[in-house]
Every structure is written in structure tokens, then in C-alpha cells.
# Entry
Amino acid sequence: MAKIIYLDNAATTQTDSKVLGKMLPSFTKEYGNASSSHFFGKQARESIEKAREIIAKKLNSSPEEIIFTSGGTESNNLALKGLFFNSRNRELGKNHIITTKIEHDCILNTCKWLEKQGAKVTYLDVDNQGLVNPKEIVSAITPSTLVVSIIQGNNEIGTLQDIKEIGKICKKKGVYFHIDACQSFTKTPIDVKKHNLDLVTINAHKIHGPKGVGALFIKKGTKIEALLNGGGHERGLRSGTENTSGVIGFGEAVRISKTQDINKIQKLRDYFIKQLLKIEKTKINGSLKNRLANNINLSFGDIEGEAISSHLENFGIVISTGSACASHTLKKSHVLKAIGCNDLEINSSIRISLSKYNTKTHVDYFIKKLKPVVKTLRQMSPYATT
Ligand SMILES: Cc1ncc(COP(=O)(O)O)c(C=O)c1O
# Structure
């Protein structure tokens, strides 16, 4: 097979060699349990606390407010279930969650499950660019509202929400504000104080860190219940022997993240979009202005995204045709549906997501290979009009 051109970085990223290098001693030499009181344990504890400090600094939080988890899915579960059960235990009568129709499945399925436990959930609409109207959040808040949970940067269409404005609303109304920042962390500034955030979900594998590790920022004073009972690790909020290697890798991935890389990716994305739009009948999904630096979501209108993807695979090009996390279910993208795409637009969509390892040569190669693929598929398509 040809050399791989990996353009599915919203699904996961290549682990940076610096990250791997930093992690290796924790497998081979410094493999103590961070809870052990001997020097081996203390060594591991120190490494974990160093990573916690790096991550806390990036969010402008205190290290004590960072709880390590197994990833974005667990952090999102802990945020919503933890708040809900704490509120229920204290009989506060706050059982209302406000979220959107374009969340990642781990939020939507947690909400569906919580509805069975007695939660009331409002799933807000978004406009045709994927933006939530902050005024609709104001209208949705009732005396029983516990939390507003919003995806900051959408994993499919890349739309970035105005978290500053939503944070102000939540603070004024006295409701918790949680963001799922798995796609946006290190790509766009997150300041938990400036943005009035109570809970923030992040993970490592989207930012050139290892898989299976994430964190939840929980603002001091937030009343939340643990989901796992055990040895009381992570301030009693996440029992279980710490994933020392993963946490070290997460910290290093954050430490080496650079604004210059993001600026470079964004420039490449804009060049890429320009080339893609030269192809007849292509349409970008999501907001062009408020968009993750590395995301392109595109519809071709009359040919299958899956067919485009498998043809490109023959040339070593790897993309996605929707949310990779959900693609095994083969269901139509709920995000594209929510922004008003019709079935043809949904079926003909592809997602390209860039990383710091991509270059203009990759983009030019992609376009060169894509054009004849589109032409051939259109000649065979029953929907093509030309
Ligand atoms: C927006 C968003 N939230 C949550 C997740 C889940 O994260 P993890 O794979 O670390 O469980 C993902 C990963 O695809 C994501 O993109």
C-alpha cells in the first residue's frame, strides 16, 4: 500500500514521540503504584502531580480541580451522572439537564440513561451552522435546572460554541456549566475562570497523547457524586490505581502543544477548503467562521461518502465519513441531521481532520486523487444530474 496520509485526527491522533519517550520509563523503570508509600510509589506520585499541574495551568485552574479518568467518555459520564445523583441524594429537586442535539454519543446516551433515572433533559436545536443560540439556553432554564452541558468544538462538523456567553448565562442563573472539550482542548483557549466553567471534559488521544486517559476539571465547591467506589483515589472521585503512564503522556502532550502548530493547521485547513470547493457541487458543513482549526466536513451531494472514502483508501488516504466513534452503528449522522442536511447531503459527506503532521503536499496529493474518484463515482451515480 502507498504511504499513509492520515486525515482522521478527530478520531484519534498519532502519539508524539516526545510523549512516548516521556511515558516509557513508567513501564520499564519507574513503575511504582502512586499510592505506595515507598520511594517507588512517591516517584510515580510526583510524575502524576507534575502532569496535573501542567493540565491545570492550561485551563487556568488549580491542580486539585483536575480528576484523572479513563477518557472523554468517562469524564462526561462522571460530570452528568455525578451531578445528578448528588442533587438527587440531597433532594434538591434539581433534575433538569440542558444539552444540545449535536453532542457526542457519550453525552446523548448518558442523558437518555439519566432520563430513565428521573432526569428531565432538554435537547436544544442548533442553527444550520451548528450554533446554539444562547437566548434559547436562557429560555430553557427553569428553577429545576441543574446543569447546562455543551460540546465546545463539535467532533463531526467542527463548530465552536460561544462558551463565554453561555458561561455568563449559567453563572447569572446559578446553574452548573459543563463543556465537552475533547476536540477543542489545546486548539482553542479554555479559561475556566474567564469562561465561568464548572466542569470541563478533556482527553489525551486527540492531542497526540495516549488513548485511555482523560480528565475532568471540577470547580472547587461543585457537589458531585463518585461513580466508582474503591480506594478513594483522585480525591475520592475516581477510585482505581492511577494510569501513571497515561497521565504522564497526557501531561507531556499538553506541555508540548503549541499555538504555532494550531495556526499552521488552520492555514492548511483554509487552503484545503479552497481546493475542495473548486470541485463542483461541494458544500462545507458547519460554520466557516467558528470552527475547529483542524476540521473539514464536506458534502458532495450525489455520491456516497463511503465510496469516496474506500477509493481514497486505495491511495493510502485515511478519512472518515462521519463520527468515527459512531460509524460502526451505520446510523445517519445526528449532527448533520440537526443542521438541516438532507439524506443525500448526509450520505455524501466526509470528514477530514488535520494534525500538525499534515503538509501542503498531503493536501495537493489528496485533491489530485479525489478529482478522478469524484468524476468516476458521479458517472455511476443515479443522483448525478450532469
Ligand atoms: C467530543 C468528544 N467527546 C467525547 C469523546 C470520547 O472520548 P474518549 O474516546 O476519550 O472516551 C470524543 C471522542 O471521540 C469526542 O470527540
User: Anything to note?
Assistant: The two ends are 33 Å apart (CA to CA).
